Amino acid sequence: MKLERIVQIHVAALAILGAVLLGMGQRSSLLPLLAVFAAITSVIFTDMLHWFHLNRFVANVAALLALFFSLNEFFQADMRAQLLAIANLLIYLQIVLFYQRKNPRLYWQLTVLSLLQVVVSAALNVGFEFGLVLMLYAVTAFSTLAVLHVHRESLRVLEFTRRGRAFLLDGGSLSDRPGGELARGGKGGLRRDPIIRPLLSPTRLGRQALGSGLLKQIAAIGGSALVFAFVLFFAAPRLDSSTRRNYQVRLTRVVGFSSQVTLNDLQSILESTETVMRVSFRDAISGEPYRVYGEPYFRGSLLTEYRFEDGKAHWRQPSNAGLEALFVSPIVRSYRLLDDPPAYRGLVRQDVILQPLSEQVLFAIFPVFASPQTPDDVRIHTHTEQLFCQTGPEERSRMEYRYAVVTTGLLGGVQLDVTPLSGRVTHLMDPALLEFDAAELPTVKKIADEIAARRRAANSSRADVARAIRDHFLRPDAYNYTLELSRVRRHRDLDPIEDFVANHRSGHCQYFASALVMMLRSQGIPARMVVGFRGGEYNALGDYYQVLQRHAHAWVEAYLPADEARAESPPDAHLSPLGGWLRLDPTPGSDIDRARQLQQSWMDTVDDVLDYASTVWTEYILGLTAKRQREAIYEPVANRTDPETWSATLARLRGIRQRLLHWVQRVSMLLGIVLAIVFSAGLALSWRRWRQGPQPGVVPSRWPWLRNGVLSAGQRSPPVPTVQFYRRLEKALSLLGLTRGLGQTPRELAFQAGRRLAALLPQTAVAELPASIVEAFYCARFGSAKFPEESVRAVEAQLIQLEQAVQQCDCTSPTTG
């Protein structure tokens, strides 16, 4: 492949990567796809086939028009609109340059435009995918700069060769140039005749440059620059406001989660795979990762008040101003700081990275307590025990929100069914926990009465009655879980809960939770609906749960007195003298298959690696503020003499090492399977070709899939061609007083001998023999094929003729050579 074709492909690839990065920032693929199309078609139709190209005048007019339309969009107040205008201008100019006749100046212009595209795209998007493509762009940029440099040097060689040949065709010689006396030898100097062929061709220059240490030097310089940039990025002090670019991230509204639930909404719910938060669990004392088995329930909003009015059914949080005025001291406020954790050996810290949401509610496993990593604006509602951020979504930075809380709700890696109440709670006096209208929900009460009567006849506890009512919804084929609510036939005059239980029995988790709450209340059991998230995708490499929007869920909490809460809790569980909340999930399919949770396919491993890399990118690249830099870099270095700090660091490193080894084992197993498949395919192919027998014209080989050019077991490599005839040539020319000097090539010696023989024997053709024999020497010495016998005989005849002519010459006669 020609060197210039390699340059064209490199420049086109660099432009394509720049357009892809720009498309990621624009969140629009129209213009970037147009740039990719122009890069590919210009290489094929303009550079290779030479079908068409734009002349300079048309290209300049097109560039001016592109500038005019882009400036029209640039004069806007929105910064993002201005950046998009610059991005569009870069794409327009790139397309115009692509369809012109290429020269080194255009190659460099296309490269610079591609670099400017990367700069603009970095201001529009800095996600993890952007980082991956940027790494690929950096490698391609290094390679493109290298081939552009080699291409420029090859053009210099061509120019030098072209000028030299034109000078010789005009009848000049090196002695006619400046410094010719030195070239002629001057006083006692030897004359050097001009070289007919260039010493270094452009193709040979490209091969030597790319095959020598040029690429190694570029790789070393690039690697050193990356290492320096890496160290400088993490070590250089930064300001907290450096990452707060409010135009970058928008607030996300979670599908399926809300602080108010509407049941008569007939629209279908679409599950979203957008990330809501990442939650990691660690031992609160040692800091080591804490594995949670099963699907954890992250409590969010607590809904106690149900209203069905004017054909609309709503769950919401009641306005408790009157309750607080009656039952709460004026000194106690509605919102308070988290309590310190109790003296309990099973404390677990929850580290949460929450995406920018449109809600103030925070999510966690309850009960929650304060930890040293808990932000100052985290509060808990005294009446509802709901966790939230005091700083509103609009006031917070549009970056991720991080908080940490401690819980006693995990024991042995399993989430407890009973959540103990806080000693400062006042919501047990809330009458909304027992609100039930038997006239509106007759079927609901009838079913609950039948189930409760059977359980109470057996002297069952409140918890047993609650579980029996829950199991009513989990019976096979009794109810149908669906998100396609538009297909459900509804009676609009009935309460949605009554219609759900009595008629269609199809709905999502909010319907199941609503029906269970009302059945429990009909039996005098205080109950409420909880809206939050259940489960998540566990990342074994990073030891965290990635909670998506589709994990939004609703379940039920029923109140148990202190004695029953104690009976429903393990012996070592943390308890409260006020009792606790029993978690009940009536939605079908909510039972935990823990064996399935421990199994993981190789595709899951790949997803874990990609998601963990995205988390590292977000946490240590985009989210590296001054506070995190101080906590992650400066403080560990300042506390290096503290043994406990080093012990904790070593413990974390050991945990990372174990996770990496676990991941390497999985990847090794996958590679072993792939190699086994490839080896089996090779054996099958070998057996097939062995059955077919040797093909005519194909050299038999020990490895059947290796074709021509591979020697068989009994075949020897061809001998190196002899060049003894060149020694005879030099011996014959020495009789004329000609010997090859230092730095003189065989062609230069042949040219000098031809001029000497032409002067001595002007009437013969002997003067052409030295050049012919030297060309045969080059073919025999550096040719890849075996020197043919007829050429050997021809060279032998020429040598004999030359030796005879030299012996007949009068070597003492004056010459001009």
Question: Any overview of this molecule?
Answer:
The protein is an alpha+beta fold. The chain is built from 23 helices and 21 strands. The strands form six sheets. It has a six-stranded antiparallel sheet with strand order 8-11-7-2-19-18, covered by helices on one side. Strand 18 and strand 19 form a beta hairpin. Helix 4 runs antiparallel to helix 5 (104-124), helix 11 (442-457) packs across helix 12 (462-473) and helix 12 (462-473) runs antiparallel to helix 14 (509-522). The longest helix is centred in the last third of the chain and has 50 residues, at 643-692. The two termini are 42 Å apart. The model is unreliable at 171-200, 241-250, 321-333, 590-598, 696-721 and 811-817 (pLDDT under 50).
The gist of it:
Helix content is 48%, strand content 12%.
The geometry reads as elongated
Q: Helix fraction?
A: 40-55%
Q: In angstroms, what is the radius of gyration?
A: 42 Å
Structural class: alpha+beta
Main sheet specs: 6 strands, antiparallel
Number of strands: 21
C-alpha end-to-end distance? 42 Å
Number of helices: 23
Q: Name the average pLDDT.
A: 76
Strands of the largest sheet, in order across it? 8-11-7-2-19-18
Unreliable segments (pLDDT under 50, ≥5 consecutive)? 171-200, 241-250, 321-333, 590-598, 696-721, 811-817
Percent range for β-strand residues: 5-15%
